[in-house]
Design brief:
This protein is of the alpha+beta class and 273 residues long. Helices cover 48% and strands 17% of the residues. The protein contains nine helices and seven strands, in the order H-H-H-E-E-H-H-E-E-H-H-H-E-E-E-H. A five-stranded antiparallel sheet has the order 4-3-7-6-5, with helices on both faces. A two-stranded antiparallel sheet has the order 1-2. The longest helix is centred in the C-terminal third of the chain and has 28 residues.
Length: 273
């Protein structure tokens, strides 16, 4: 019984790997390519593909290509409804994107993890590692994570990183916890966090947290920009991201989505480098 259970679980794991690989290939996946990519025997790969097609999770296209089917698309919609931002927060993200024309993100803090919930690509698409909806990794290197961590109790942050090595994602990544603690304190004082090529070479990010009724961080808004353009637009981008976060905080605390008046005076918070 134990051996059979292991075999069944292994087959399920390979089936999920095939489903994920097909989804990532955007309609260009074939059995041979998938077999090589996932190190699965071609006969087994065909069997897994037939099973996923029969269940509706995949569809077979002309020419032997495979793509995501209606069952997988339905599952994706269910997951997005459960884990994605509320429509009102999505509106704020759209506003931030429309104003900056840069790649804009919203992340949500839940159960001790900051999860990327949604993003809108800028005019110039950036390649930022494997960052995608659902991503939770490298909390020490991402501006959104640092923006939230900065406003959590210090003992909670210390517990999260105790005994955890801080991976050098790039040559600019903070890899020492004491240095990270100083960076978080700076972010807390100024109200936003920066990622200066710490997660992806050539890319800088600014992020500001928003807060729920209990005063604790509920998530963050972020924009990512090529380093050269970030230098030129830094102060303005910081202002726009902080405005988005302030709108979200107001929404969560009052239940009303309020757009700042265009005649309202600009915030005069002193930027700390």
């Amino acid at each position: 019984m134990g051996e059979q259970r292991t075999t069944v679980l292994h087959t399920l794991e390979r089936g999920l790997q095939v489903l994920e690989a097909v989804a990532a290939a955007d309609g260009t996946a074939t059995a041979k390519v998938l077999g090589r990519q996932l190190d699965i025997k071609i006969g087994t790969c065909y069997h897994l593909l037939r099973t996923l097609v029969a269940s509706g999770h995949l569809v077979r296209l002309p020419g032997g290509y495979y793509d995501v089917g209606p069952k997988a698309a339905s599952l994706s919609r269910h997951l997005q409804r459960r884990s994605g931002p509320s429509p009102e927060l999505a509106v704020i993200l759209t506003r931030l994107h429309n104003k900056t024309r840069e790649t804009s993100y919203i992340s949500g803090w839940n159960h001790g993890a900051l999860t990327l919930q949604h993003y809108l690509s800028g005019l110039h698409t950036l390649s930022v590692g494997n960052l995608d909806v659902g991503y939770t990794g490298h909390m020490h290197a991402r501006a959104s994570c640092k923006a939230v961590l900065a406003f959590l109790p210090e003992e909670q942050v210390a517990a999260m990183f105790a005994g955890v090595p801080l991976e050098a994602v790039t040559t600019h990544t903070i890899t020492d916890f004491d240095t990270l603690t100083v960076d978080l304190a700076t972010s807390r004082r100024r109200g936003y966090a920066l990622d200066l090529e710490e997660f992806s070479d050539g890319v800088c990010c600014v992020s500001a947290p928003f807060f729920g009724e209990n005063g604790m961080p509920a998530g963050a808004f972020t924009v990512s920009v090529p380093q050269s353009r970030f230098t030129e637009r830094r102060s303005w981008l910081i202002s726009e991201v902080r405005e988005a976060a302030a709108m979200a905080t107001g929404l969560l605390r009052t239940g009303r989505l309020t757009v700042p008046s265009p005649d309202a005076p600009a915030r005069s918070d002193r930027e700390v480098s």
